[in-house]
């Protein structure tokens, strides 16, 4: 069964533009210029129950708008959405019972009251029985390690502590589908790791579907097998992270640091006839050779360079997911 | 039933929040009581110089004012939506509201209640009993029931009007100055409407029916038969305005376009 099914989903916003000058301001009073801008432009995709999907894109690509439509906050301009077998904005109150939402930049908890009071209130809001709550939340609280925070008011928590509590709050009713909008924004590495492990665990334990948007691609690498990539409101890639890497990786980079000073032209002459491009970082005197995917070429370049120069350090870098994605954006469509 | 439990859950939570800041709570209660006392003195001083106003005696006018304070206090306790635009639309708090399985308006009301304002109702009742005893009014067995009904009607009138104004934010997200203006107009309802000219009276009865919060229902208890029709219209007007405002709200939520991050 598909947890999420989206077909030809579209959301348009009116973008007003003001004319310049005082005269323009008066004209704006009477008739305002506006353009209809599609924030989400006829996208279609489906997510199976139990999948963890990374939903990525630049700022303003339409990620948040999509999430808001999927959670029933916004009404789409056209197209159809079925999430957990329901139409989110039509049966909102019944629908939200089946999802959990974490907005990294907004708090779900009540600012002034202790965390456990917030939990208690949410438990009533979602009509969770005591037995269910105890069984499920004991585990969540233990895994996220928030036991000592429960009696503190939310405003006294650090960002990392708050975020773990937010996550727990979103899971009080143990929803089969979880939306996470930038859940690790501004968090330190340890908290990030904890949150990732936790997400993996609930995914395995309850077969929870997770849709995640983030700017931190290491989150995606750690969690998601599949990514959906958005640009200007359109889906430009939908598939496994691995095949994206394979298709878009552009060779390797070998970094050299030499003991003695070296010249770029010298190195270029050395590897003449090979598919190599040399670059130099003037400040740190690091020379890098960009090669194709051919592994043999890599070793040849290293052999030749090492034979003629004294080397302090050699590194072989594969392009990071981040670089690959930047590449895709720069060059446009997949 | 679910909404009933939720209501008390939120009130419980509200109490806890208040008790967190014990010093704050004490200061607030003292200042509330103080401002109510000043209010009371103010009424007596202002109306001390008028004996008759278009056929209304001083005591009657004070009585109407006292009645007005009761629905008004209930309204300000539970319908603190004057900053709805800023708090929920501009800051995007409505996103959070909309991801919970409770009606959005109900949640906003519960989150924003300020029970301290209920002290105003005490002042109102005190004023009514003071002026009522000077007028020699008797309390019949049905009076408390009708009083409750009329007060409820008045609260719904107020709530309806202010919810409708809050709904403007769904369509136009710029801030408007209608809210404070409306609070001013609301004050006109606490004086006998026949002292105003016909147009204003019409507006206060049918367009912005603030007269149903003060003078119309109070006239019943003053035994003014010529106003009885309007007195008994109070609950109906309240229901109509509140009903329309909720419908408008539901429509507005569909139009809501959210705030960016």
Automatic annotation (TrEMBL), chain A:
InterPro entries: AAA+_ATPase, ABC_transporter-like_ATP-bd, ABC_transporter_ATP-binding, P-loop_NTPase. The keyword Nucleotide-binding applies. Residues 24-257 form the ABC transporter domain. One of its GO terms (molecular function) is ATP hydrolysis activity. PROSITE patterns: ABC_TRANSPORTER_2. Transmembrane segments: none annotated. It comes from the Bacteria. SUPFAM superfamilies: P-loop containing nucleoside triphosphate hydrolases. Keywords: ATP-binding, Nucleotide-binding, Transport. PANTHER family: ABC TRANSPORTER ATP-BINDING PROTEIN, ABC-TRANSPORT PROTEIN, ATP-BINDING COMPONENT. This is ATP-binding cassette domain-containing protein.
UniProtKB/TrEMBL annotation, chain B:
This is ABC transporter permease. The keyword Phosphoprotein does not apply. Keywords: Membrane, Transmembrane, Transmembrane helix. PANTHER family: INTEGRAL MEMBRANE TRANSPORT PROTEIN (PTHR36833:SF1), SLR0610 PROTEIN-RELATED (PTHR36833). InterPro entries: ABC-2_transporter-like. Pfam families: ABC2_membrane_6 (PF06182). The keyword Phosphoprotein does not apply. The chain crosses the membrane at residues 25-49, 61-82, 115-133, 145-172, 199-221, 227-249. It comes from the Bacteria.
């Amino acid at each position: 069964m598909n947890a999420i099914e989206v077909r030809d989903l579209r959301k348009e916003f009116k973008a007003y533009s003001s004319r310049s000058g005082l005269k323009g301001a008066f004209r704006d009073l009477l008739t305002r210029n506006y353009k209809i801008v599609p924030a989400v432009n006829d996208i279609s995709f489906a997510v199976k129950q139990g999948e963890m999907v990374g939903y990525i894109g630049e700022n303003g690509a339409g990620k948040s708008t999509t999430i808001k439509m999927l959670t029933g906050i916004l009404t789409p301009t056209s197209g159809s959405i079925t999430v957990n077998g329901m139409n989110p904005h039509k049966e909102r109150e019944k629908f939200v019972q089946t999802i959990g939402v974490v907005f990294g930049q907004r708090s779900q908890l009540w600012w002034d009251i202790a965390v456990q009071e917030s939990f208690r209130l949410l438990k009533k809001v979602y009509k969770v029985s005591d037995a269910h709550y105890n069984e499920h939340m004991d585990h969540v609280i233990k895994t996220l390690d928030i036991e000592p925070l429960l009696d503190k008011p939310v405003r006294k928590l650090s960002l990392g502590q708050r975020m773990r509590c937010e996550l727990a709050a979103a899971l009080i009713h143990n929803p089969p589908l979880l939306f996470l909008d930038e859940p690790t924004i501004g968090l330190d590495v340890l908290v990030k790791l904890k949150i990732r492990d936790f997400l993996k665990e609930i995914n395995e334990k309850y077969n929870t579907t997770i849709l995640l948007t983030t700017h931190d691609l290491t989150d995606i690498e750690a969690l998601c097998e599949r990514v959906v990539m958005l640009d200007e409101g359109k889906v430009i890639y939908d598939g496994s992270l691995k095949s994206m890497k394979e298709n878009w990786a552009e060779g390797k980079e070998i970094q050299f640091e030499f003991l003695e000073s070296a010249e770029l032209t010298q190195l270029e002459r050395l590897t003449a006839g090979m598919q190599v491009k040399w670059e130099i970082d003037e400040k740190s005197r690091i020379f890098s050779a960009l090669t194709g995917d051919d592994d043999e070429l890599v070793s040849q370049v290293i052999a030749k360079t090492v034979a003629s120069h004294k080397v302090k350090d050699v590194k072989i870098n594969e392009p990071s997911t981040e670089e690959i994605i930047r590449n895709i954006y720069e060059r446009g469509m997949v | 039933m679910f909404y009933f439990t939720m209501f008390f859950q939120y009130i419980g939570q509200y109490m806890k929040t208040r008790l967190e800041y014990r010093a704050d709570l004490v200061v607030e209660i003292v200042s509330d009581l103080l401002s109510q006392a000043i209010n009371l003195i103010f009424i007596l001083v202002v109306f001390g110089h008028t004996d008759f106003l278009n056929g209304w005696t001083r005591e009657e006018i004070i009585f109407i004012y006292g009645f007005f304070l009761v629905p008004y206090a209930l309204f300000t306790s539970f319908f603190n939506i004057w900053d709805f635009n800023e708090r929920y639309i501009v800051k995007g708090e409505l996103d959070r509201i909309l991801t919970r399985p409770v009606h959005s308006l109900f949640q906003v009301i519960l989150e924003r209640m300020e029970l301290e304002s209920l002290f105003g109702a005490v002042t109102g009742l005190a004023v009514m009993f003071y002026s009522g005893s000077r007028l020699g009014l008797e309390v019949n067995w049905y009076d408390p029931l009708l009083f409750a009904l009329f007060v409820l009607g008045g609260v719904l009138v107020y709530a309806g009007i202010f919810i409708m104004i809050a709904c403007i934010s769904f369509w136009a997200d710029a801030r408007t100055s209608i809210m404070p203006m409306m609070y001013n107009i609301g004050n006109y309802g606490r004086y006998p409407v026949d002292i105003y000219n016909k147009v204003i009276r019409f507006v206060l009865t049918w367009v912005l029916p603030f007269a149903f919060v003060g003078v119309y229902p109070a006239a019943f208890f003053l035994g003014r038969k010529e106003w009885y029709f309007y007195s008994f219209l109070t609950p109906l007007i309240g229901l109509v305005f509140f009903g329309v405002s909720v419908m408008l709200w539901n429509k507005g939520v569909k139009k809501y376009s959210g705030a960016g991050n």
